[in-house]
Design brief:
Elements (H helix, E strand, L loop, with lengths): L1 H5 L6 E3 L3 E3 L9 E3 L4 E3 L9 E4 L2 E5 L2 E9 L4 E3 L2 E3 L6 E6 L4 E3 L2 E3 L4 E6 L5 E3 L2 E3 L4 E5 L6 E3 L2 E3 L3 E5 L6 E3 L2 E3 L3 E5 L6 E3 L2 E3 L4 E5 L17 E3 L4 E5 L17 E2 L4
Parallel strand pairs: 1-4, 2-5, 3-7, 4-8, 5-9, 7-10, 8-11, 9-12, 10-13, 11-14, 12-15, 13-16, 14-17, 15-18, 16-19, 17-20, 18-21, 19-22, 20-23, 21-24, 22-25, 24-26, 25-27, 27-28
Antiparallel strand pairs: 6-7
Length: 258
């Protein structure tokens, strides 16, 4: 894989064979997917039998970080399992770029599956994030982009959105975590058609000055909040949320919401 990526150029698709791509097999980390290059495994099984596992510490906008994969503008990763078992390890680091990550599985990362920062605008679609230590996906900076049809489960926090990030979350299943969706700082995500179920603390927890778009009369939210341990929705900000077209019981809400 390393050799193929080193000579690839925009428009090239690299098809991975079944196997584990790690340091023992000769890979050097982090794996860098160049702009316009597609790295493809088995999309139908979300990376079953095709694993990229490794880490190297690199300089980022958040200091030195242990990272398995970096993805440049318009790069694509499809149908691969990603793991980073290094302390505070990140599966994919996306910093001010706009790649597409689809039909992948992120598991065993010692911090998060994907970290999105800076002015990044990625598309993360139809991926599974399971049994990562801290977050499935962590978004910071002024990042936007789309998180669509993903499943985040059995992690500390399914998805965390902070700073001034304002992504669209559409059709995601965020279930069986401690906290499903955590909003901090001035986050402004748009939530449509997501399921936030059976998280042990909160389905959605919002602090600081974060303010989610939970739907309008013209664009109903379509989100389902149910079965979360403490509350389905915690609004610990000083702002009043507006909810339209969601399945959300008033008795399962703490904080101001219309």
């Amino acid at each position: 894989m390393r050799q193929a990526l080193s000579v690839s150029s925009s428009g090239i698709t690299i098809q991975l064979a079944t196997g584990t791509y790690d340091a023992a097999s000769g890979e050097t980390f982090p794996i860098a997917i160049p702009s316009g290059v597609k790295l493809v495994g088995n999309a139908s099984s979300k990376g079953g039998g095709i694993t990229i596992s490794g880490s190297s510490t690199i300089a980022t906008n958040a200091g030195m970080q242990p990272v398995a994969i970096q993805a440049d503008d318009n790069a694509e990763l499809r149908g691969v399992t990603v793991s980073n078992t290094a302390t505070r390890g990140t599966g994919i680091w996306i910093e001010s770029t706009s790649p597409t990550i689809a039909n992948c599985t992120f598991t065993g990362c010692k911090r998060e599956g994907i970290r999105i920062s800076g002015s990044a605008k990625p598309t993360i679609e139809s991926c599974t994030f399971t049994r990562n230590d801290s977050y499935g996906i962590w978004m910071l900076g002024t990042s936007k982009g789309t998180l669509r049809s993903n499943r985040c489960d059995n992690t500390g926090t399914g998805i965390s959105i902070g700073d001034s990030s304002a992504p669209l979350l559409d059709g995601n299943a965020i279930v069986n975590n401690r906290v499903g969706l955590l909003l901090t700082h001035d986050a402004r995500p748009i939530l449509r058609n997501n399921e936030l179920r059976n998280n042990s603390d909160y389905g959605l927890s919002a602090i600081s000055q974060s303010l989610p778009d939970l739907g309008t009369s013209q664009s109903p939210g379509g989100n389902i909040f149910a079965g979360n341990g403490r509350k389905d929705l915690l609004n610990a900000t000083q702002l009043t949320f507006t909810s339209a077209g969601n399945q959300l019981s008033p008795t399962a809400v703490q904080g101001s919401i219309n």
